[in-house]
């Protein structure tokens, strides 16, 4: 398994506008997944279970791809999926696995060797959130809305891709849905600004930078030149191996694809090479969730979002005034 120290780098988005809208960045994952299924293969990714928690499953048709599409910002349960993958590989079936870099590393460790019929896909990862914190947030919302959540759609793109990290849509069993934005989008606000419920191990991630774990890496191409950004989602695609390159060459025409300089990715996406800083209070935060609501806990350990956003806005205004002088 030879992975490149300088991956081929592309800005891409799928030409299928529906898939692009329903994907987290440019829909790159879905096009790779479809090609694998078209070749009688199996794709493994993360879906919501009946309790809105996340689990890795193996799928073999396009409906299955719909379920595993989209980023879910919570740690998924791997369950028995590594075993299932090994079985299919030994039956000479083509298998695509998509997960965090540490999950891809876990798969290789379990298999003990690389297989020609295995394609691994990872993503640039800020860090995995605790399912306990996520459930506490969702329970609070469900109580307020007096209905069970049926679907959580992180980074909902209605209103634009670049602002999508601030926007989460939740659908409810009684038929209504709500879009939580900015300071009302508490879970993503806390994820992106406090790191309080990111797994402690993510603070010392062993799988940053290059060589990548996966044959292919997906990410949001934050900081991409305006000419490749129509605010509908641009994927950063890294091709990390000959295997990945071969597969990409077979589906390149499904994308709007532009080759980029590898060095252009670092500024917009520091998480490519850096781990987040998980604060010392993270474990106290999680313990307090046993008897406090998510919003009270976040307020206790991180401050009230409105206040922080207000201060941020003032700081940005001051910065703009200084720059424009
Ligand atoms: C926890 C997390 C943190 C991320 N951090 C960053 C970041 O800092 N910077 C950045 O540019 N991109 C980050 N990403 C990746 C980004 O959100 C997109 O997933 C990526 O750009 C692929 O988008 P897409 O449109 O090609 O496909 P999508 O359809 O969005 O593909 C998502 C793929 O990821 C898998 N997946 C979804 N949720 C999980 C999960 N919880 N665990 C394991 N696999 C999962 C799905 O099964 C699917 O294969 C992160 C993703 C996750 C899940």
Automatic annotation (TrEMBL):
<dbReference type="Pfam" id="PF04432">
    <property type="entry name" value="FrhB_FdhB_C"/>
</dbReference>
<dbReference type="InterPro" id="IPR052977">
    <property type="entry name" value="Polyferredoxin-like_ET"/>
</dbReference>
<protein>
    <submittedName>
        <fullName>Dehydrogenase</fullName>
    </submittedName>
</protein>
<feature type="domain" description="Coenzyme F420 hydrogenase/dehydrogenase beta subunit C-terminal">
    <location>
        <begin position="93"/>
        <end position="258"/>
    </location>
</feature>
<dbReference type="InterPro" id="IPR007525">
    <property type="entry name" value="FrhB_FdhB_C"/>
</dbReference>
């Amino acid at each position: 398994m030879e992975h490149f120290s300088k991956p081929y780098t592309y800005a891409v988005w799928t030409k299928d506008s529906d898939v692009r809208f329903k994907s987290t960045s440019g829909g790159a994952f879905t096009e790779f997944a479809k090609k694998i299924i078209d070749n009688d293969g199996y794709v493994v990714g993360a879906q919501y279970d009946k309790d809105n928690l996340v689990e890795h499953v193996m799928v073999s048709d396009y409906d299955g791809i719909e379920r595993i599409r989209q980023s879910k910002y919570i740690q998924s349960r791997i369950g028995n999926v590594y075993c299932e993958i090994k079985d299919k590989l030994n039956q000479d079936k083509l298998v695509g696995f998509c997960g965090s870099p540490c999950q891809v590393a876990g798969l290789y460790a379990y298999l003990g060797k690389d297989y020609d019929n295995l394609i691994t896909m990872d993503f640039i990862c800020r860090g995995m959130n605790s399912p306990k914190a996520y459930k506490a947030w969702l329970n609070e919302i469900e109580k307020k809305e007096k209905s069970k959540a049926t679907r959580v759609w992180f980074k909902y793109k209605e209103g634009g891709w670049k602002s999508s990290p601030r926007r989460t849509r939740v659908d409810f069993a009684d038929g209504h849905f709500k879009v939580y934005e900015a300071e009302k989008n508490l879970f993503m606000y806390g994820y992106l600004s406090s790191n309080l419920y990111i797994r402690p191990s993510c603070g010392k991630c062993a799988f940053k930078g290059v060589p990548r774990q996966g044959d292919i890496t997906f990410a949001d191409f934050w900081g991409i030149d305006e000419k490749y950004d129509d605010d509908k989602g641009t994927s950063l695609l890294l091709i990390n191996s000959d295997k990945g390159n071969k597969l990409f060459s077979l589906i390149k025409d499904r994308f709007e694809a532009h080759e980029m300089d590898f060095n252009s990715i670092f500024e917009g996406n520091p998480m490519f090479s850096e781990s987040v800083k998980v604060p010392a209070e993270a474990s106290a935060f999680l313990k307090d969730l046993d008897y406090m609501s998510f919003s009270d806990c976040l307020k206790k350990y991180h401050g009230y979002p409105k206040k922080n956003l207000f201060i941020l806005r003032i700081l940005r205004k001051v910065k703009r005034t200084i720059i424009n002088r």
